[in-house]
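Example record for the data management plan.
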Amino acid sequence: MKALVYGGPGKKSWKDVPDPTIEAPRDAIIRVDAVTICGTDLHILGGDVPAVQPGRVLGHEAVGTVVSVGDGVTNLAVGDRVLASCISACGVCRYCREGSYGQCLGGGGWVLGHTVDGVQAEYARIPFADLSTYRLPATVSDEAAVLLADILPTSYEVGVLNGRVRPGDTVVVVGTGPIGLAAILTAKLFSPAQVVAVDRAQSRLDAAKQFGADVTVLADADPLAAVREVTGGLGADVVIEAVGTPAAFELCTTLVRPGGHVANVGVHGKPVTLHLEDLWIRNVTITTGLVDTHSTAKLLDMLVAGQLDTGHLVTHRFPLDEILAAYDVFARPAETGALKVVLSR
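Corresponding structural encoding:
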């Protein structure tokens, strides 16, 4: 089969690799019907995730059809159409029992495209398949469903829930790529008074408006002045960092009010200065996190019910065998206007 293979920082290729096989009783093999590219994949290619070794098949967001299952799989059958979660869960370790699947001690967590071969391929092995896939109703398209593999639960759990967004809050989202836009979309579920979007690209701020941002600010302007203006000088109740750079994180800590929350969602590959000399006296809560995907089933229900409109997130579509072109488009959003790219058979 063909797959997108990591060759080291800055190197990737679409090449022949062996077909995946059942390696453990709880595995399933899926035919990949739709897949997307994540900002984390770009971080891997940038050398920011050294645990990913050359030769690894990338990708952790897919919709597929089950083609075989291990003897220990009880909830799936050949032919089932499923969402493959970005997080795998053994279901029995301490963290899984607490719903913290991202920290699984039994061989799960974020493994796809990280420590085991991922889903940017024609076929993929899904560990712990009963707990790491979701059967999809016919009313949900592949394109809509694949957004539930990572960006929607990540933004909702690590950004909105960790940030404790409440009705009437002022929420600032720094970085309005796909994760930031999904954070805006899911923050709106909690009826904030206003959402402020900050980004370096006007095209992404325009997209933020479509997703419900009330105020947009270019990062090169004066975000602090803009946030103070709309909060009477107080600062934001919740600031969500959705970039993964030192500058973005430090900006977030200046925008939050005393007693507020900074929820870091971005993947960081470099050290960040934590200005405790300024923050210690302000009662600021800072959270970090890897998504657990405990919310995926609920988000799928909301998608089916029409409570989540994800239609504007996908801007580019490609056949699966044009994945190198898709990477090129996705990696140059300021020029291409790309948000999410979806590749299908």
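Summary line stored alongside the record: The mean pLDDT is 97.
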